[in-house]
Each structure stands twice: as structure tokens, then as C-alpha cells.
Amino acid sequence: MTSTPRSARQPPSNGPLNYNPNDRSFVHPHEIPTYPTQNFYRRCVLNGFQIGSWIGTALGFNLIVVMALVWSIGRVFGRCLGRGPKPVKVEKEWERRITGERFSSRAEYYAEFFGYECESLEVETEDGFVLRVHHLLSKKHKQLGHPVILQHGILSNSVTFMVNEERSLAFWLMERGYDVYLSNIRTNFKMPHRHFPRSDPRYWAWSVEQIAIYDLPAIVNFVHSRTGRKPAYIGHSQGTGTMFLALSRGMRPDIGNKLSCFVALAPAVYGGPVLRSFPFSLMRKFRSRKMWSLVFGVREFIPIISLLQGVLPSWLFGHIAVPVFCFIFGFHTTDWLQRQVPKFFRTVAVANSSELLYYYMSKLSYNNCIFDTTTTEPWFPASFPPCAIVYGTLDTLVLGKPLVERIRQHEPNVNLVKVVSIEGGEHQSPIWGVNAPVECFEGIREVIEQTKDL
What's the CATH code of the domain at 221? Predict the structure, then answer.
């Protein structure tokens, strides 16, 4: 089936930076650096520093790869001795099946492979970034059902919801008649800015607040105006943290009035212990912006990863990425279908801003939360939509339980309609887990149906 590329750029509005700047904000302040117009001299100086950063981070990344390979060998021996979480049982038919599916980074490929059409839409933010939104179309369901937005996590893109074959969340929702939109943050898929080229540091000068203030309102407004209905918003990891920011006081809580519900999978609000272990423990040392910029540059974070994705065969990159990202993020993968794991990791390590990672290392890893936890004053106003939270008990990257407790104790404006704790689940389990359709997706469907007419 052929994909249907289509441009549907949402014109920007001239709204303020904050929805209500007079209201108190509970977000830890993170000032984005400003850069002057890049003349020839400044470009030469910047490129000189960037080359040094590229070489340094490339050497560091190669060292991480070697350490990860050694670590993975040790983990294999440990599992042979019965250490660590036990693998989840998988139906033999699914475990042994051969689909003919290849490794790919294209959303259109996975959509077509499983019988859907994929529209490539464009949405422009108020600050000039053009975002890629993928819209799935099905021949099975001619009449589009309730609209659903799927928003990915950090170092990822919309494809992350499409790589688990028929058990992919995007396809699972499509089979049940929902109208699925897969959104992306700024710079994903090398999408442009109205004024700045990718070589300009201003193209990369953004963090989670910019995603919350600009990207998410643009996406929600676009889907809401296109469908005429309040969409359900389902985020994973950073896709939840940024929505919690957007819906908080002093930010853009007005978009809560345009959502039927907010489902947070592995919510990135409270940081987990992995952020204090190696290599994050080393990255935390560069808390000074000058030192961070000198080591990691002011453009793309560790650009050698994008280079390797471009020059290595997709299957090879996927197999190399497995031990590396499991080592870095502490993934155990025991509740994932093992034959699919390399394909999963072909879709991660998407080019992200160095400034974004600086925020996580200088703010979240020290404060352990994206909000001020020293106050019991509510973070969220009455416009907050009905909410559901899903988290894994073995997630060490972010922690879901403290967020649930905070909402129940101090957030009277949040209607927490459902909480799902996946026993033995980790950070990616809500979307990649073998039993995700039963443990997670069915609950998501219940929440959508329960709230869509409110």
C-alpha cells in the first residue's frame, strides 16, 4: 500500500510564552542561552569548538560501547547462573514467527507493512519550528473514531509506537477504530525551522519547557481543530513529563480543556536511581554550562550516533545499540520479545539537542523531580484533564509511584481515573512489553472510552 504524503502546516498563533505568567509556576527555572546572528567569524569559531566536541564525545562513546559489550557478556553469564529478573514466557508461535519485516527508521514503512496508509503532516509552532505528525489511515474502518495523540519519549520518535508488530500501540488502537496521530518534537526527522538552519546553534537552543510551551499546544490544537473533537493524549516518558509541565500552573494549562484524557506511560516527572549511576554520574559533573558546552557542544548531542545510524546497515546498528543502551539505562529486556530487541533499538538515539540533555543532568538528576517538591501547593489547575498513570515496578530511569502519591495527597484538581503498576515491568514495558496489550493497552482503552464524552 502506498503512503500518502501530505502537508497540512498549522499556522502559528501569537500567543504569549506562558498561558498565565501572573500565576505561580512550580517548574525549576532553566534559562536557555541566546546566540547572536552567525557571521563568518562566529561560524569559524563555533565550528572549531564543535569539531573538538565531536572528537571528544566520539572517543567517549567508543569507550562506552566497549564497556557495554563487556558488561553484556557478564550479564549473560549472570543469567546462566539464575541472577536477575526471569524472562517472561512468550507464546511459541509469536516467538518463532518470521514476518519478513526489515529494520527501518521510517514510520511509513511499518504502517504500509501492516496494511495502513500513513499521512505525513506538518505543524508549525509559535516559535517557528515545523513538527512532523504521522496520521494513520485504515481500510478496515472507514469512519474515523475518537482521535488519539501518541507522543514519544527522549532520544526517540513516533516510530517507537510501531515496532512491536501487531502488538504496537499505534496498530492496536487502529484495529479498534481509533483515529491515531503520532506526533514528534522539534528537530525530529530533520524537520526545519522557519529561520534557522540546522548548523545554527539557535536551532538547537531548546529544552523541555519549549516542548511544553510550544510543541504540545501546537499538536493538540492541530488535532483538535482537524477532527473537531477533544483528542486523548497518550505520552511515554518525556512525552508525559512535558505534558505535565504544559498542564501546570504558569505554563499552558489551557490545552487541558482540549483533551479528553491524559494517559501517562512511564511518566518522566520523578527521576530514578539510574540518573545517579555511570555514565550519568560523570555527566552530572559538568553542571557548569561552559564546561557542558565545551565537552558536548551546543548543537546535536553526541553526533557520532547519527553518523553511525547513517553509515551502518540498520540491522548492525540495532545489534550494537542493544548492549549500549541497556548498559546506559539499566534495561533488562526480560519482558520484551528477544528477536525484536535489535529492531526496537534501531529507532532510538534520535538526534536531540545538547541543551535538552544538559537540562536533565543539571536539573532533574539533582532535584529528582521536574517540579518543586518542597511545597504542598497544587502544581495543576482545574483545567487538568482526567488522567491515568502506568508504570513498571522495575523502572529505574523514572519513578511512577511518587507521582501517584503526590497527586493523591496534594493535587485536588487532578482526577486520577486509573493507575496501573506493571509488576516486573521497566521503562519501555508499557509499549514494548510482551504482555503490554493485556497489562497496559486494555486499561488505556477503558480510560479513553470512559472520558471521551465528558
Answer: 3.40.50.1820
